Amino acid sequence: MRDIYIYNTLSRKKELFEPVSKGMAGIYVCGPTVYGDAHLGHARPAITYDVLVRLLREEGYKVRYVRNITDVGHLENDADSGEDKIEKKARLEQLEPMEIAQYYTIRYHRAMDKLNTVPPSIEPRASGHIIEQISLVQKILDSGYAYISNGSVYFDVRKYNTDHKYGVLSGRVIDDMISNTRTLDGQDDKHFPLDFALWKKASPEHIMRWPSPWSDGFPGWHLECSAMSEKYLGREFDIHGGGMDLMFPHHECELAQNTASRGCGGVKYWMHNNMITINGQKMGKSYGNFITLEELFTGNHKLLAQAYSPMTIRFFILQAHYRSTLDFSNEALAAAEKGLKRLMQACRDVMKLTADEGAPSIAEIAENREKIFSALCDDLNTPVAIAHLYELVRLVNQIKDKTSKINAEDLGLLRDSFKDIVMDILGLEDEQAESENAGMFDKVIEMVLEVRRQAKKNKDYATSDKIRDRLSEAGITIKDTKEGTEWSI
Questions:
Q1: I want to staple 237 with a disulfide (CB 3.0 to 4.6 A). Which of 163, 231, 233, 367 is the partner?
Q2: Kind of pairing, strands 62-67 and 146-149?
Q3: Which region holds residue 350: left if phi is over 0, alpha if psi is between -120 and 50, else beta?
Q4: Which burial class, exposed, middle or buried, applies to 61 when counting CB atoms under 10 A from its CB (0-12, 13-18, 19+)?
Q5: Cα separation of 289 and 331, whole Å?
Q6: Which one, of 276, 238, 247, lies nearest residue 66 by Cα?
Q7: Four-way CATH pick for 278-425: 3.40.50.1110, 3.40.50.720, 2.40.128.50, 1.10.730.10
Q8: Which of 250, 307, 214 is nearest to 126 (CA)?
Q9: Predicted confidence band of residue 469 (pLDDT cuts 50, 70, 90)
Q10: Between the CA of residue 41 and those of 46, 276, 303, 328, 468, what are the distances in Å?
Q11: Model confidence at 185: pLDDT above 50
Q12: Distance, CA of 207 to CA of 97 (rounded, Å)
């Protein structure tokens, strides 16, 4: 295993990755609140931590990757007021809240599949872990860092700050936070403006509610990750990832909850990816520059000059370091599309190269391979890794053009490098080859169906039925209609 360094938000420096359990890496990443389609902002953490998981597995670690689904408790603002985001969507569309959650969870999964992200080992839902969250609230009450107020339970930030320090993750000072806090509706039950809800008493019109020792209500948004990460990764685990926008208050509150209930912060390495801006401006619905992944894939948005494939989006995101701001523009995506085509062409070409017996060894192959892995192990420095990867692309083109020769051993290493790095770690797929294969598959099926049609015309029903049955065994359903024969997988 190579040494892997991760920038730890908590310590503000790169640290050598040393897992809690030898050979095992526990990773928890904050997943989506499922009340709308996945957008460009969802793609960055998904791809960032996907590469991390792939790299750790490539280096020989067993990885337990947990990514949650928030389907209850996330209110309209972070001051524990307003409607539940999913309930609001359900009310507007006259659906059950869980219909909304299920619909957008399925669409999120489809978008992640298109981006070729590996599925998590475990994907827990907040609504499926109410018992664990109630138990966690009771632990925090027992520790003296929470209080009950009119059926709701709040975390006592002042008490916690006296014994520990609230704001250590985000670098905020509690006195400064107080001076910048507005008085908002729904805070009357709090003893202190910065206190946050662990359990909220449900108002009469609130649909999603569960019985608890304090009231019929629902858990606070921050609570779910503390409860589910401990359940599936233990009292202390390795990496907690998420967007920089979650650092405060969400992760700050998690850290406080963990410390209050477990006696330790619970996480060794806090990782945060930076934001995506659009033409230098923060992305948001209020700015009119909010772009869903489906709109990117289809080109159906006023800001888009064309459609961009999932792998173009993935490659675009990988061209910037995950901790740097990434600015979206049509020009940047077009450049990423061009660079990706060049890389994928090299992936195809390297498999067609032939070795020359007696050709001298090419030291650059092993050197650049190690430079790529060094960059990836240096806090996921994908842009530097990609720069060295293009040195291998250059070598492939030289050998292809017969201006350089390669021996069998070096050719094997070159092919392995493209597979290990481009496909297995960076997670890039050859969309052109897939499209060509799909077209070839369609032609083969149509050819088989033409044989079946001819058999039926000749009243050779045994052959016709045999073709239908064999296609069915292969997972292909055919249906005879007045217009002809339809097929589906």
A1: 233
A2: unpaired
A3: alpha
A4: buried
A5: 16
A6: 238
A7: 1.10.730.10
A8: 250
A9: confident
A10: 9, 6, 16, 11, 45
A11: no
A12: 8
Strand-strand pairing, 267-273 and 237-243: parallel
Superfamily covering domain 5-273: HUPs (3.40.50.620)
Between CA 348 and CA 459 the distance in angstroms is 46
Q: What are the pLDDT digits (tens) for 229-272?
A: 999 999 999 999 999 999 999 999 999 999 999 999 999 999 99
DSSP for 63-129, written as a single string: EEEEE-BB-S--BSSTTS-S-BHHHHHHHHHT--HHHHHHHHHHHHHHHHHHTTPPPPSB--BGGGG
Rounded Cα distance, 232 and 28, in Å: 9
> Residue 32 is encoded by which pair of tokens?
């989506």
- Tell me what pLDDT residue 77 has: 66
Is 445 a residue whose pLDDT tops 90? no
164 secondary structure, DSSP code: S
Asked whether 218 and 247 are in contact (CB, 8 A), the reply is no
pLDDT of residue 454: 85
The H or E element that residue 439 is part of is: helix 431-457
Looking at the chain, the domain(s) classified CATH 1.10.730.10 span 278-425
Percent of the chain at pLDDT exceeding 70: 94
| The pairing of beta strand 477-481 with beta strand 326-328 | unpaired
**Mind listing the pLDDT tens digit for each residue in 341-383?**
999 999 999 999 999 999 999 999 999 999 999 999 999 999 9
The CATH 3.40.50.620 portion of the chain extends over 5-273
Rounded distance, CA 484 to CA 341, Å?
38
DSSP type of residue 318: H
- Helical H runs in 217-275? 223-233, 252-262
Say which amino acid occupies 281: Q
Instruction: Name the strand (E) or helix (H) holding 58.
Output: helix 40-58
pLDDT in tens, 299-342: 999 989 999 999 999 999 999 999 999 999 999 999 999 999 99
Using left for φ > 0, alpha for ψ between -120 and 50, and beta otherwise, residue 165 falls in beta
Average pLDDT of the residues in 149-155? 97
Q: How far apart are CA 245 and CA 32, in angstroms?
A: 13
